[in-house]
Amino acid sequence: MLRYVLLAVFVGVLHADVCKQPQGRICEVDVYNCCDNNFGMALNLTKCNGNLWDRVNCYRAEIENMFGTSVDGGLTVCSAWSDWMKCLGRTLQDCESVKFHVMQGANSGQAINIFTVYSQISFLCGPGLDTYVNNDGTIRNVFINYATQLQRCRDTFSNNVNTNWENRCADFRELIGCYQLPFQTGAGIEGGWWGCEYERSGVTAWLPECSEQCTATNNNIRAAEELPQ
Fold first, then answer.
1. Which string of DSSP letters, residue by residue, matches 120-166?
2. Model's pTM, two decimal places?
3. pLDDT in tens, 78-133
4. For position 215, what pLDDT does the model report?
5. Residue 72 within a domain
6. Are residues 179 and 94 in the same domain?
7. In angstroms, what CA-CA distances link 132 with 107, 138, 168?
8. 61 belongs to a structural domain
9. One domain, residues 113 and 164
10. Residue 138 included in any domain
11. 2 pLDDT above the threshold of 80
12. pLDDT: is 28 or 136 the higher one?
């Protein structure tokens, strides 16, 4: 495994810009843009164009495809992610925040979406990595075989929250159950928990008041088309 990580780091270094060292803890736009450019180059995200808030869904799709294609692909993402964190240093938290992206011109929904994707990559490359690597490919297959279903889960949640904010925590419970279903179907109980945690990590980052936990006996496991509208 280490061989793959070192190879990804070496290839990334060959093409990376040298970004200046950030000062303090406040995100600096020029440093952020340099680090983001290196992240995109390391993963060859050439089809993801435009402002970050316009291309973040493309980022998510491409990254999930890399995780779904092979362990090598997942480890390449995590190598680039490690470089991203080092590049931003002490400004990482501010640079990933909803506030920073709103200040750069994103609306609240776009900024939340960006923050969600950052939080999910942190799970993929942090507490979720061992399970992903050791799951014999079944978790990877879910990203490929159930991509449309997972997108429907997110779209349904987004539409419901935008329609009735007061019901957000109930919608959140439905969301993680919706995400758990394809992973549990394709990768068993452990895979179901992993898929639930993957989506939960992204949403609780900006909805901390919704504290639903992921369990194998989640009563909200159901397909997107079965969710209340």
1. HHHHHTTTTHHHHHTSTTHHHHHHHHTHHHHHHHHHHHHHHHHH-GG
2. 0.86
3. 999 999 999 999 999 999 999 999 999 999 889 999 999 999 999 999 999 999 99
4. 85
5. yes
6. no
7. 33, 9, 29
8. yes
9. no
10. no
11. no
12. 28
